[in-house]
Amino acid sequence: MGVSFDLALVIVLGIITVHQCKYFSWQVRFAQLQWRSLTTAFEGALGGTTATSALFVMAISPLPFTTILVGLMIAWQYVLVNYYQMIRATTATGDEVYYEAKLAYKTASDHAAIVTETTKSILPIIKAITDDQEEYFDHILNLPLPSIATFHGNLKHINEIASVLAGPNLDMVELIKEGGRAHEKTKWRVEKAKLLAKHGEKAEAEAMLHQANEDLEAIRHLETKLSAVLSKVRLLDAKFTFENTVEVHKQMLREFRKYSEGIFADSPAPAAAPAPLASQMEPPVPQPEPTEPPQPVLPNSLTLTNPIALAGSLSGAAETIDDVAFELSLPFPVKIYGHESSVLSINDNGMICLDHGPDDVQNRRLGTQLPALNGIPPYTLFPLWEDLMIKKGKPHGIYYEIEGAEPNRKITIEYYVTRFQEENLYFHFLVILEEARPSVVTFKYFDVNDKGKLGTVGVQGSHGKY
Fold it and tell me: What are the transmembrane regions (predicted)?
């Protein structure tokens, strides 16, 4: 009876084993490496060839053959379980590394595209202005005008902008190529690690995943670098536009043209003293005494009935607030993507995070494609993520109000802000979270002067949900 039971057990285990041995040679290789690791550990502890000797003794022991065979099959099942666990772990880790690399490279490419577009729109204008001055340059150098200094200062400013815009753009080509190579390497290393795991080469698979992680860090470094370039180019674009660099330069050239034509047509003698510009001959206009500045008026009034200011003031902010986060504790928890929290981190760049804010608010001020996991908490609301700010003396601010009674309370957060270096623009919107409607968030917009062309709007959770 015992022999029949053993034989039946051997047959059942044999069928299971054959079914699971799809990659028998690779599984044997895995078992060999595991056995080598085991024997090395035993021999290190006890000395000699302990494990191998034990196997030999078991082979010649008087135990029934079927009992030994059953033991070996059970051991083989243990090997198979470890083998498939190793493959699953390698695949999961590899897929996560490649997803992060793909996301970081996509973000870096988006940054590069915006830099290129901005550069293309500005550089031709700079070239045209720089070419204009060649017509008058020889005459201008000979004119003893105080305003020549203004002309040269303005021209120097244009050249500085041109060099800064052209510099990152040239380097950017190589940066994108480098990022592309790292992205392809990551993909290749992850696939190689999966294949090595399937072949039972656990140590080599782990080493390959480590190299893939190094490639991922290189792509993340590229993303950070291009984010800094994008920020710099946007600031230069704003400076170039709102300081009226083009118009000031052209006005200077018009005055020089008028003056040089008068000098060289009517007064050819080089010793003749040039007359000053008409604008310089006019007597100074007396300025009125300064009066108390009027209180700033909001184009739109706040919608909150009893607003509490987190930052800023309706009568004019006491100070400029830029890239700053404010923590707010709520009397009830809010939920997004299944995660609850009663602590919000609210910053002036249109970002509301659960639990805590970004690692570095200043370096996370520019909106990117979601999910944005690099330095930003996984559970975050983005009503309008871009480089916003609160300007001193302006009626800007971030306000909130909690209404209702348990279990129907709600919090409304109201933004009234402007964009960095573009204080003529206003952005006015609400974020509403309700106790009775978990996992529901409402964004409501009143004033978005640029139609949101530079902003990111959305909600993200953990594991790339958005």
Answer: 54-79
- DSSP letter, residue 317: B
Handedness of CA 328, 329, 334, 340 (dihedral sign): positive
CA–CA distance, 202 with 185 (Å, rounded to integer): 20
| Cβ-based neighbours of 333, under 8 Å, separated by 6 or more | 340, 341, 342
The whole-number pLDDT of residue 168 equals: 47
Nearest-10 crossing angle of helices 245-266, 202-242: 50
pTM of this prediction exceeds 0.70: no
Nearest partner of 213 among 90, 85, 111, 377, judged by Cα: 90
Cβ within 8 Å of residue 238, ≥6 positions away: 420, 421, 422
Cβ pair 367, 385 in contact under 8 A: yes
The β-bridge partners of 459 are: 381
- Rounded to the nearest 10 degrees, the angle between the axes of helix 202-242 and helix 24-46 is 100
pLDDT score, position 192? 87
Across 388-406, b (16+ Cβ under 10 Å) vs e yields bbbbeebbbbbbbbeeeee
3-state secondary structure of 47: coil
412-451 pLDDT per residue, tens: 999 999 888 787 788 899 999 998 888 889 999 888 877 7
Segments in 142-201 forming alpha helices (H): 147-198
Check whether 156 has a pLDDT greater than 90: no
Distance of CA 132 to the CA centre of its chain: 40
Domains in the chain, CATH or no CATH each: 1-270 (1.20.1260), 308-460 (no CATH)
d(CA 226, CA 237) in angstroms, rounded, equals 16
Q: At what angle do helices 65-132 and 202-242 cross, to 10 degrees?
A: 20
Q: Mean pLDDT throughout 380-399?
A: 89
* Alpha-carbon gap, residue 202 to 29, rounded angstroms: 10
DSSP code of residue 1: -
Q: Are 115 and 172 in contact (CB under 8 A)?
A: yes
- Report how far apart, in Å, the C-alpha atoms of 90 and of each of 189, 199, 209, 362 are: 12, 12, 8, 36
Distance separating alpha carbons of residues 90 and 192, to the nearest angstrom: 10
For residues 84 and 115, give the distance between their C-alpha atoms in angstroms, rounded to a whole number: 47
Which helix (H) or strand (E) segment holds residue 230: the answer is helix 202-242
Q: What is the dihedral of CA 434, 435, 438, 440, to 10 degrees?
A: 0
Q: Are 106 and 369 in contact (CB under 8 A)?
A: yes
- Cα–chain center distance at 4: 67
Burial of 274 (0-12, 13-18, 19+ CB in 10 A): middle
Q: Tokens standing for 125?
A: 């204008």
Non-local (6+) Cβ contacts of 21 within 8 A are 27, 80
